[in-house]
Amino acid sequence: MKGTGRRLISLLLASIMIVGLLAACGSKTSDDGKAASNADGEGKTGEKVTVEFWTISLQPTFNDYFNKLIADYESENPNIKIDWKDYPYDAVLNKLMTNIAAEEAPDVVNLNTELANQMGTKNALVDFNQELTPEQKEAYFQGIYSSTEIDGKAYALPWYTGLPILFLNKDLVEKAGLDPNNPPATREDLMQWGRQIKEKTGVYGYIFSMEARSLLEENLQFLTEDYKKAAFNTPEVEEYIQENLALLEEGVIPKDIINYDKQVQYFASEQVAMSLSSSPFINKIKTAAPDVYEKMLAVPSPVGEAGIRYSNTMNLVVPATTSHKKEAVDFAVYVTNATNQLEFSKVANTLPSTVESAKDPFFSENDGTLEGVAKTVSAVSLDKAQDFYIGIESANDVNHAVTKALENIYLNDADVKEELAAAEQEVNKILGN
């Protein structure tokens, strides 16, 4: 598990992505109350197999897209009926767990990577590595597909995703004597730019992430290879933290950037020249400071030593208790195939997780607007994308524990060694040690 990570990325990528999608199975049943189907997708009585399919807060915004997608699928598969249901985000997980407990599990469900891993490690989900051909698996970007692979099992099909973008204030960058057409490509470049901006203009260079993922961006060891113990309490991590403390001391990066609204405020008031964010940040600045919006440029986000960018991906899973595994897997593959992912990206302003989709001119060409450029520069990073939750069942708790320690060091001048030792102990407890 490697990568970048920033509280800012988490917040903004959550907002770029329409919160939810698909799920579930309400299948036709035989006389004994258990669903039955044959290899051709028909029940023993000759009735159509019904695949119940939940989404999260997508109606009515995407009714046209899903109604067409379902109609096309049913036309190609006349023995299958898709029963599409939509639920509020805060209700869908409880409903899903209730249905599973009542042995009425859905067939196809949209989950984020963290929840997919948690359910998968409890043997609650179908292993797609057993269901897909090698060619089908290769359709997805490997770094994204592998995000739900644990112990050789893949618990989800990746669907739509989002990636960070570096936004520049063109005027401040040029005032510092830097070329916005040759933006920073690495973290080292970003630090150099930040120091020069501070020296030449007096404003902060860039907004800094204090989240655990920032360690992974630098390819610093985070957990042991089997993900069973903490491995971040090392001299190398201490050195990385000291570098950031120096930047804070020099005024290159501001301290009080935990709150997202504060991050918007800093950029909108031109107190900072660069901000790592995602597409919704554009509208925030456009509303708060139209004049600053006119000065904004979008460029690919710099990478650390790991050379990857973290995605925030939504997935499709198939509960293991489904009575129609074959049909459910087929429908999940259909929804996430390159053609349908491309069409969804066009209507939902998301990025696809399929290689062929990303090759479409829709992602490589733009109209020259800030919004168009942002789409293009994020899409070219898909081959470097991974998800933070790769391989870890309790990744969110681990992330929180380490992030809390880093924030205490950066914001409260806590002792580096003591905080890392305490975080190491807490993470090992979370991981069952």
What do these coordinates show?
The strands form 5 sheets. This protein has a 4-stranded mixed sheet. A 3-stranded antiparallel sheet has the order 3-12-6. It starts with 6 loop residues before the first helix and ends with a helix. Helix content is 45%, strand content 13%. It has 21 helices and 13 strands. It is globular and about 75 Å long. The chain is an alpha/beta fold.
List keywords for this structure.
single chain; 433 residues; alpha/beta; four-stranded mixed β-sheet; three-stranded antiparallel β-sheet; 21 helices
Short description:
This protein is α/β, with parallel strands linked by helices. It is 45% helix and 13% strand.
How is this fold's topology laid out?
Blueprint: H1 7-16, E1 49-56, H2 63-76, E2 80-87, H3 89-101, E3 109-112, H4 113-120, H5 128-131, H6 134-137, H7 142-145, E4 149-150, E5 153-154, E6 157-158, E7 165-169, H8 170-175, H9 187-201, E8 204-206, H10 213-217, H11 235-250, H12 260-268, E9 272-277, H13 280-288, H14 290-293, E10 296-300, E11 309-311, E12 314-317, H15 325-335, H16 338-348, H17 355-358, H18 361-364, H19 370-379, E13 385-387, H20 395-412, H21 416-430
Parallel strand pairs: 1-2, 8-9, 11-13
Antiparallel strand pairs: 3-12, 4-5, 6-12, 7-9, 7-10
